[in-house]
Amino acid sequence: MKNFLSDKVINIKPSGIRKFFDIVSEMKDAISLGVGEPDFDTPWHIREEGIYAFERGKTFYTSNSGLKDLRNEISNYIKRTQGIDYCPDDEIIVTVGGSEAIDIALRAVANPADEVIIPQPSYVSYEPCTILAGAAPVIIELKAENEFKLTPEELLAAVTPKTKVLVLPYPNNPTGAVMGKEELEKIAKIAVEKDLLVLSDEIYSALTYETEHISIASLPGMRERTILINGFSKAYAMTGWRLGYACGPKEIIEQMTKIHQFAIMCAPTISQYAAVEALKNGDESVEQMRKSYNQRRRFLIHKFKEMGLECFEPFGAFYVFPCIKEFGMSSEEFATRLLREEKVALVPGTAFGECGEGFVRISYAYSIENLKTAIDRLENFIRRLRG
Amino acid sequence: MRDELLSILEKNSRIDFSQLAIMLGKSESDVLGEISKLENDGIICGYHTLINWEKTSIEKVTGLIEVKVTPMRGKGFDNMAERIYNYPEVKAVYLISGGYDLLVILEEKSLKEIASFVSEKLSTLDNILSTSTHFILKKYKDHGTIINKQEKDEREVITP
Known about the structure:
The complex is a heterodimer of chains A (387) and B (160). With 387 residues, chain A is of the alpha/beta class. Helices cover 42% and strands 13% of the residues of chain A. Chain A has 13 helices and 12 strands. In chain A, the strands form 3 sheets. In chain A, strands 2-8-7-6-5-3-4 form a 7-stranded mixed β-sheet, with helices on both faces. Chain A has a 3-stranded antiparallel β-sheet with strand order 9-12-11, covered by helices on one side. In chain A, helix 3 packs across helix 10, helix 4 (68-82) runs parallel beside helix 10 and helix 11 packs parallel to helix 13 (368-386). Chain A starts with 6 loop residues before the first helix and ends with a helix. Chain B has 2 domains: 2-40; 53-139, Alpha-Beta Plaits (2-Layer Sandwich). Chain B is built from 5 helices and 6 strands; from the N terminus they run H-H-H-E-H-E-E-H-E-E-E. The longest helix of chain B has 13 residues, at 28-40. Chain B is extended and about 65 Å long. The interface between A and B is medium-sized, with 29 and 15 residues.
């Protein structure tokens, strides 16, 4: 029998999380801090709108780019939060989660010789999606001393004549880092000078603390060279509904829609109806969840300080990314031992890129009681390691 | 801080104050000061415990009584409400818009005791025009808390 498999796919590394997942699944009383999705249920008014859509028999395909009503609401939302105008007719596409938007955006723009700059640590899909799109990933290793923000120097050093795309993943998973306006302006300036397209993954935009999210697309000269990706999973606790979107220049969205049309047809119809409700009336629910996350974030940061565990204060998403270098072991070893000895699961930083070595990701998408128990166990573990 | 403080305390009044201060990003003394101010101003009126009596051996029956009254000159409904809420077995009294005036929530050991409270105490008060009694058969949700909720984390244990 011949080898039926694609070399390109075979060469993609499986997710570093998988192995860990298997160990945790076997353990009965392990507390996991390893989850990348909200602990809240989708707010009831949104769920009810989904139920109502079922009742009305809204069980057919929508147009390829998504329900017109939903695109209108997305357009309004971006306008009122970022002040950017996107035409609902041809500059917005509704996708199956932010992750589909990442995939089709890269496939719509990548040619074989193109380089795609990916700052890491970051979400696991940018690199494989770039490879699958046939382009070449160029990794920037972000630094803890810069609070994992992308600096102009780092970007300039990575740009070559072949660079086409910069992936800009803020607020960031796994570090919780955010980029402020001035920092973005410097990046935007380089993007314009070097003629780069920015793929701005803003899936955590609604979850920033003590600061407001700013989209790079809102800066002068950036709208025409940015694909803005967002979705409903994190802000509205709607992960299982699989719904995201991309906004961008008409020419790019048109090509993305082509791929989407052939691969997916359209995003789930029921989810789209529910999402209209989310955008229309969901602000208060989001605000309540955001407040809870912020309380937990402060709690964790305080605990780390108490323990003397090095950690920069993150202002976005729902992760903290403490440094574990003092214990002289790899992130994976730290995570495995913590799991075996104290039954707390977290994700080694290396799952988000090699430069995540020496760090672990702790999610605070858990109740404060849960976090407390887990942090007590982590403290025991650390005390033992320090001897 | 006040709004956030109240919404946390409303859900969990037993929270550790130093932890509460950390969650709010304030100093412990600020939080304690604010809480005593809220208590003194009568904004925080008490710290109660939500008990599912059904799971105990103690019998409790809750009745909801709709009461129509004649308001008293110069006092409106307040006087009538006071006469009713002073009974210790009365758990709550609300002035209600619509088909009747006062809603009285009563907790007793048995249906019979509720019946006798209504017929012997409540109905005999002056100015009571009529009463209509309902018994609570099952509590599904009380004080924003779902009774008998099975807390289970449905999420995959590790996700990117």
